[in-house]
Amino acid sequence: MIKYILERIMIGIVTMILIITINFFLLQLLPGSPFNSEKLTTEQIEMLNEAYGFNDPLPVQYVRYLSKIVQGDFGISIINTNIPVADLIYGKLPHTIKVGGLALLIGAVIGLFLGSVAALNRNSFWDYFTITVAILGVSIPGFVFGAVLQLFFGLKLDLVPIIYKIGDPRSFILPAVALAYPIIASTARYMRTELVEIFNSDYILLARAKGLTRRAVVYKHAIRNALIPVITVLGPATIVLIGGSTVIERIFGIPGIGNLMVDGINTRDHFVILGCAIFYSLLFIVILLIIDVIYGVIDPRIRVSGGMKN
Amino acid sequence: MTFNKKKLTKELFEFAPVDATLKEKINKPSLSFWKDAWLRLKENKAAVLSIWIIILLTIIAIIGPIISPYTYKETIYIDKQFTLEEKQDLAKEYIMVQIIDEITDEEKETIFKKYWEDKGRDPETKRKQFDRTVEKAIKENAHDKVISADENELDQMLVEYFKYTGKEWPRSPGNTIPPRVPGLEKLGLFDGVRDGINVYQDLGIEDKYFWFGTDELGRDLFTRVWYGTRISIFIGLLAAVIDLLVGVTYGSCAGYFGGKVDIVLMRIIEVIWSIPVLVIVTILILILEPGLMSIALAIGLTGWMSMARIVRAQILKLKNQEFVLAARTLGTSSSRLIMKHLIPNVMGQIIIVTTFSVPNAIFYEAFLAFIGLGLPAPQASLGVLINEGYQLLRAGYPYLMIIPSTVICLLMLALNLFANGLRDALDPKLRNK
Predict the structure, then answer these.
(1) What ipTM does the predicted assembly reach?
(2) Of A121, A219, B31, B384, which is most buried with the most CB atoms under 10 A?
């Protein structure tokens, strides 16, 4: 077991280094410089380049960057008055985590519930409802959904604030729902498929044959076993959260990492873009690692065959 | 029910001819894989409806901008509407200009004399003020005429004024005109009314119909929406093709050659897989500069992994089968074996994944446009339009966002349902998944 976990961690670290390398060199190809203000003279730009070490040979810059990252230093934001990128990210992290975590919770709970109800009552209203939700989940872009929520619940009905405000829990509701909705869709769909398959399996037939009540069959045998593979939904859900956070944070004015990255893109703030990209990748790799480990613990077959791949 | 026994005579019963060849005859026409899939697809009502919606949207997207009298980037100018006072002023000016231009010296003399005689003075004492007096007299005369004129006459004079002086009729961009559709407007929908005011009446363009209204720069939204749909569909298809080419090539190489090649190729995929798509797409587009091709390329280059994996898995399964062995024994080259023997057997799966990647690409394009990585202005895609509309959502112009959003949702829904239907039809094992 320990060997399996260590192996997974090693793969994670190697992947991370590769990602940093790829990102670093891709960013070098970016057109536009952070110092493109018209007020700067050529000499001043030259001095700034010198000060930030942009004139050094690429390998030198790369090694310096890599060694800094290991020390938890992501470089300095060029636009945001020289604040370290790490500080920027840590400052924005709580907002992203608050809304994202809430969304994940809402998404998982409602999704699992809908999926189970649909699978237990096939071809009923709830089944069709869940299928519709699942299809709409992949068909309506998140920002359209967010904007519709804003327009309807915020502006028309005036129930909840439409702009995120620190310290006002009511203002979390709309962004969390907007972020949760694709997660609800994918979780519900997955849970339904999983349960339907389990209901057709032999051990459920056996459980019924030996005279267990429907309740016992459903709760003890079916749902418990269906929950195991559903853990893997966490991976795609993280991608959804990462992608969704940028647009949803923009719509609702949340000062989170997604907003930071979009601002970085628009101002060509290389280190901020790179820092956010690395942060996102790290988050994703850690979650994939956790999923792999949990899965390995729960299902010994995976350990033997060498890891679950999505 | 009564049963007439008399009608059942013995002659009615005959032995069936015993014919060995007939036993082997298959009554049902033989179905190819594709025909079978088509039959299954036709039974899926949602999928059939989706196909019609996709066809309809594509046709409108192609002919919409063509039949529209405007282009997607042209600002529509509206003739200025004058208030009554402005009209009167202009009419006065018209009359004066006209008279002053045409008047002869004798006529001036008469006007001058008449003016002072009416006032009871001797015109000769006022000879010094000749020009001023004539002007004043004409002005007063014009004023009287204008005051007594009704609105229609004024409008007539206005038209003549601009014709006469050769001046351009003042025009302004017809921006944020709400949607108005003939027929529907009578039902109170799309009637061009905003905040209780009929904007079309207000602007004096009651003869015009902007079906989807105009945007903040006065561009016709109907043209832009369908032009944008065209671009979005094009990006979706292009990305799907890139997806297809890269994914199938990569996946079939990994699957066919196996061993070390497979391990290395799959590790690379694993690494790329662990980079969030947002990060790769963002950086790629920043490097390539936003544009039609670069956006499609960036989306295509990030979406091929699942295609590669599926193709690889299928080929791994197929390559040990007898038909591959037979082909190899006959001396078929690797590339021919992959192209002619293996890929046709994976075609079903490839088509399914490709169909799903079209809506995905459209989705991603819209997403990118929303975070500021969309097509440069004045080009439009559905994502760009939604983004532009969103900026004005709270300013009181919700139709600017709602119309393109509706189109993209409809398109995505239809494409997804169609892809679902296709998957069920091509791969019945996967049904209900």
Answers:
(1) 0.79
(2) B384
